[in-house]
Design goal:
The complex is a heterodimer of chains A (112) and B (115).
Chain A (H helix, E strand, L loop, with lengths): L3 E4 L2 E5 L4 E7 L6 E7 L6 E7 L4 E4 L2 E6 L4 E6 L8 E7 L8 E2 L3 E6 L1
Chain B lengths: L3 E4 L2 E4 L5 E7 L5 E8 L3 E8 L6 E2 L6 E5 L5 E5 L8 E8 L10 E2 L3 E5 L1
Parallel strand pairs in B: 2-11
Antiparallel strand pairs in B: 1-3, 3-8, 4-5, 4-9, 5-6, 7-8, 9-10, 9-11
The chains are: A mainly beta (112), B mainly beta (115).
């Protein structure tokens, strides 16, 4: 089955800096890669996703890139703000967009 | 539009007790899921239901059972709770039909402690 590894486990940046979180996946058949943000005590919420036929996708200050050859994908957050502080999870699936396999999460701390 | 509703939000059980976690969605999604979240381990799939009338095991199904009661409802049952089942449980739903948003919608979670 699919296996997703996520790095780093924690990331501290200053407000205004960029943050990058990286994930690798094992199954070359995986075709859908979402990213979720989970604030303390809250539910995970989808922030951006990418499908395997696209190399990059942007939404304001966040972007996701996908390298199918290397089987890795990354989340990029520019001009970070304190409200970006949260745990971020990557995920992948090879089963028709269902049954996501999640990474272990990255705790992002943005200091003012 | 409530999205995904989970009950209860908190529960304390004694070892050996049983309980059922309830989940309902009002988005007409076909697929529903139960995940558990433990520190440092991300979200792990317990069971899922690709459509009404079907259920299948995920990564960590031992000690759990599920029922897809109808298209809206998907319950998770612990028959004999163990301390290792102390965790935060999330229900989620999704719609994988072509052209729709594929992302999961999560419920607010159930924090379960087994003593």
């Amino acid at each position: 089955g699919e296996n997703v590894e996520q790095h780093p486990s924690t990331l501290s940046v200053q407000e205004g800096d960029s943050a990058v979180i990286k994930c690798t996946y094992s199954d070359s058949a995986s075709n859908y890669f979402p990213w979720y943000k989970q604030e303390l005590g809250k539910r995970p919420q989808l922030i951006i996703d990418i499908r395997s036929n696209v190399g990059e996708k942007k939404d304001q200050r966040i972007a996701v890139t996908l390298n199918k050859t290397a089987k890795h994908f990354s989340l990029h957050i520019t001009e970070t703000q304190p409200e970006d502080s949260a745990v971020y999870f990557c995920a992948a699936t090879n089963t028709g967009f269902q049954k996501l396999v999640f990474g272990t999460g990255t705790r992002l701390l943005v200091s003012p | 539009n409530a999205g995904v509703t989970q009950t209860p939000k908190f529960q304390v059980l004694k070892t050996g007790q049983s309980m059922t976690l309830q989940c309902a969605q009002d988005m007409n999604h076909n697929s529903m899921y139960w995940y558990r979240q433990d520190p440092g381990m991300g979200l792990r799939l317990i069971y899922y239901s690709a459509s009404e009338g079907t259920t299948d095991k995920g990564e960590v199904p031992n000690g759990y059972n599920v029922s897809r009661l109808n298209k809206r409802e998907f319950s998770l049952r612990l028959e004999s709770a163990a301390p290792s089942q102390t965790s935060v449980y999330f229900c989620a739903s999704s719609d994988h039909r072509q052209g729709n948003n594929y992302g999961y919608t999560f419920g607010s979670g159930t924090r379960l402690t087994v003593v």
